[in-house]
Each structure stands twice: as structure tokens, then as C-alpha cells.
Design brief:
The chain is of the alpha/beta class. Helix content is 33%, strand content 25%. The chain contains eight helices and ten strands. The strands form two sheets. A six-stranded mixed beta sheet has the order 6-7-8-3-9-10, with helices on both faces. It has a four-stranded antiparallel beta sheet with strand order 2-1-4-5, with helices on one face. The relative contact order is 0.18.
Length: 248
């Protein structure tokens, strides 16, 4: 597996409060990496900094050898880094198919491109890819339904599908299992294992360790804006991790 993302000594302050303090992590292609830590530890800030919503005060974000530190979020998207949110954000009046198709850039997105024949060809290809992803997440039969008809778990799957519409290389997920039934959570995790096979890197924030732990390749623990542990089984036995995260 080749190195996909490397975060080197990222720091971020908010009004004198250090949200991130020299954070360093690494993610390889075809790897599931889990980030855990107590509330307010810096997990979300790290994601926002990697994806260009926040600008780091110091340090670097390297993606496939390119320095993408401080690049705006829409350009980060063009590099192949996509994300999902803890609370799904579908366009509820649009159908499932439309929700996926709008995530893909086509020639018709521009004024002049919409007059070119190539636009129609790209629309067909985009629809075909969207149908494949709906099938992958077992939502194909609902393609013409508005997103407002879906359950919370199905909305999570729809958001995953939308995040995979471009040529995704790194998928970042903020609590993908939050608020969904264990059976559907296991289905979602099985889909993530399938994504590993095609070398997509996966970076998760997740609190439901009992469900996600068997599927991850590496774990980072963050507390007070710094990484305090890395590994797998040994992480949960680390005295510092037990103190700050498990509360015992």
C-alpha cells in the first residue's frame, strides 16, 4: 500500500486556544484508519483542516506527494478527497439519483459547456455511475424517490454514495455509524471493506468501537489537540488513553 495522506505537525489556534498541537498522522491507500478521542479533543478540527475548511497555523498536509496545505475545499475535492458528515445533508426534494449526479462535475456545469454535445454524453456516464453506486449500497430500487423518504441509516448510505461519485481516493467520514441500527451499521462497514479492495483510503471518526474496531487497520488517539497513541489492540490498553478517553 502506498502512502496517500501525510499530516506533518499541524497546529491550529482559535482565539489563543490550541485546538491542534503538532498533529502528525499517515494514511495509506486501501487502509481504514480510525481517529478516536473525547469531545473537544480536536477530531473535527483536524478533518476541517485536512479538507480545507480551516487553514492550519503551522505544519503541512501532503496528499500523494503534493503539498495541499491551505488549499480551498473545492480544490481539495478535485484532488480526490471527499467527506461525509455526522448528520447527512441530502437535498431532500431531489431524488436519490439526482442527489448523486449533482456531486459529479460535467461539461454542462459551465455556461459554454452546456451548449456542447459532450455535455449529454457526460450526463449519461454520470447517471450510469450513480446507478452503480445506488446498487452498491442497495438503494437502486429507490432511485426515483425523494431523499426525504429515506430512513436515517439509508441517508448515511446515500451520503456515502454521493461522496464516491468523483474519482475518490481518500474518503473521510465523521461518525458514519451514529444513530443507525447495528444491522445497517454492519452493512455499511462491509461496504467500506469493499472500498478497501479498490485502494480507496478511509479515515473515520467513530465512537462505536465495538462495531468498527474489527475492521480498522490503524488507530490514532487524540486528546487536547495532540496525538497521544497509535496502533491497534495496544491502544485501548494504553494507560493515558484509558484515562482521557475511557474515563477509568
Amino acid at each position: 500500500m502506498s502512502e496517500l495522506l501525510k499530516v506533518e505537525g499541524i497546529s491550529k489556534d482559535f482565539d489563543g486556544i490550541k485546538a491542534l498541537n503538532g498533529v502528525a498522522i499517515s494514511i495509506k491507500s486501501g487502509e481504514i484508519v480510525l481517529l478516536i478521542g473525547p469531545n473537544g479533543s480536536g477530531k473535527s478540527t483536524l478533518i476541517e483542516t485536512i479538507t480545507g475548511f480551516y487553514k492550519a497555523d503551522s505544519g503541512k498536509v501532503i496528499f500523494q506527494g503534493d503539498d495541499i496545505t491551505g488549499i480551498p475545499s473545492h480544490l481539495i475535492y478535485d484532488f480526490g478527497i471527499t467527506r461525509t458528515f455526522q448528520i447527512p445533508r441530502p437535498l431532500k426534494r431531489m431524488t436519490l439519483l439526482e442527489n448523486l449526479m449533482i456531486a459529479e462535475k460535467t461539461a454542462g456545469d459551465g455556461i459554454w459547456g452546456s451548449f456542447r454535445k459532450k455535455w449529454l454524453e457526460e450526463e449519461y456516464k454520470t447517471a450510469e455511475r450513480a446507478f452503480k453506486l445506488l446498487g452498491f449500497f442497495e438503494l437502486k430500487d429507490l432511485y426515483h424517490h425523494p431523499a426525504s423518504n429515506l430512513s436515517r441509516g439509508q441517508l448515511k448510505l446515500l451520503e456515502l454514495g454521493r461522496a464516491l461519485m468523483p474519482e475518490t481516493k481518500l474518503l473521510i467520514m465523521d461518525e458514519p455509524l451514529a444513530g443507525i441500527a447495528p444491522q445497517l451499521a454492519k452493512k455499511l462497514l462491509n461496504r467500506l471493506k469493499e472500498l478497501k479492495k479498490i485502494d480507496i483510503g478511509l479515515f473515520l471518526i467513530e465512537h462505536r468501537l465495538d462495531l468498527v474496531f474489527p475492521h480498522v487497520d490503524n488507530i490514532y488517539v487524540i486528546a487536547d489537540g495532540r496525538i497521544i497513541a497509535e496502533g491497534r489492540e495496544e491502544v485501548l490498553k494504553n494507560p493515558e488513553v484509558i484515562e482521557v478517553y475511557l474515563g477509568a
